Every structure is written in C-alpha cells, then in structure tokens.
User: Fold this.
Amino acid sequence: MGIILKKKLKDGSLLGMWEITEDINVLLSQVKLSATELERFDGFLSHARKLEFLSVRALLAKMINPDAKIIYNGNQKPYIEDGSQNISISHSKKITSILLNKTKRVGIDLEFMSHRIRKVAHKFINDSESINKNDLIERYHLYVHWCAKEALYKICDKKDINFKLNLFIKPFPVNNKGVIKGKVNSDMINEEFDLNYFKYDNYVIVYTSKV
Assistant:
C-alpha cells in the first residue's frame, strides 16, 4: 500500500502515514540504508520489527528526502541527523506515522484499538479525567487519552514522566476528530498543549506541536 497520508498542517507540521502491505524486499528497495542502519536492521530478530524499521524510513523518504537519516538520543528520542526537522514517530500493527516540523517540538502516537485497554486504564487515567462509560464509546475514549499522553511524553523528551501522576487530559466530548487540552506537570516540566486527534479505521492518532 505505501503512503496513505501526507498532509501539511496549519501549524507548519507535516504529517505522514504508511500502511505496510509490502514484504521486506520491496521495502528495502525503497530506502537507502547507511552501514549503521543496515547493521541495526540485521540485528532485529523479529520480522515485524524489520518491517516497522523499513516503513519508517520509506515514509520519511517520501515525506522529505530519500537521504534523510534518523538518529536517537540517550532516551531513544529520534532526530533528523542534519537537524533540519524535529521528528516524532509512532507505529502500531500495520500503520506507521511520522510528524515533522522545522521549528517546533512534536509528538505523535497512534494505536490499534483492542479491548485490553480497559484492563490497564487504572494505570494511566487519574481522578481528574473523565471517561465515557457507554460500551460503544469507552474503549475509543480511553485510547484517545492513552495516545494523547504518549504524544505528550514524546514531545517532552520522555523526561521522568509518569502517565497517571504527571500527565492530565482535560475532559472532552468524544468525536471522530477534534482538539483536546493536555497538561504536563512534573518536577522538570509545567506546560499545556493542544492535541489533535482523529480516527482511521480501527486506529486512533493523536499529535501535538509547540515551540
């Protein structure tokens, strides 16, 4: 399938999504791996992990430049090697997503919706947050909260953040897409963010950016 979305956003960010239907050889033909990247790729034991790795780089090539390279800091936060863009990456099941911005910090998360999220909701939902208890809505509402907190975690460089104690999503009505308010309150960070969310098939995608 390849790239299914490439969209310039109002804040100047570029959002891309890739649906993995190709095999490894097809994806390999669409990317230029450095020696370091090839060594990392060869080290993956999981077939799915190899597909994910290649799809990220194939998507990035389509979004900006076939020669663009991704590097990681000590917290495994990704960066574009030449410093031209800030980048955030997410992957779930068959979908890979990337958010880019030349001047703003970015965070994105996407998740395939399964039913197991209800069993772990107590680990990331706090008393200030409100979840719709309608059977048809609850799972989706929980996933929007989870993805929003993942996006906040990423944009803040994963710095000593507890999803339940340090991340807060303001109550919001559930729609197929929208903008919600999130806050990070920790010893190192105290900031508020606008987060955009939308639904694609059985996936939830949430993204945010800020200077």
